[in-house]
Amino acid sequence: MEIIVLALVIFIAFMVFRYYRQKNYLKVLTEDQFREGYRKAQLIDVREPQEFDKGHILGARNIPVTQMKQRLVELRKDKPVFLYCQRGSRSARAAQLLRKKGYEDISTLKGGFKGWTGKIKVKKNSF
Question: Active-site positions?
């Protein structure tokens, strides 16, 4: 029983540490804040291609988080990077990877694409 409690305490401490560390480099933006800046940034949808094809923010490029390491050459370090996924967890993982690779100006959409009310583009025959 003590081992389970100890494991739980360690897990919670790790999650709190990760949250505060991530808060130092990742800006979580409301939709209005995101909309204000994404045209001047590299707008990246980190969802899988089939999700992207069903609908994405107008002007976004699709670089799935699963391919991010291999496709870093497509991103510039001197321009802001705006990330989003369906709800926010994958974009946070992508931001963590970008931070480790030296990217500094990283923002993510609070609530992800699920909460987006702006213009979207849908690829034909995606349903």
Answer: 85
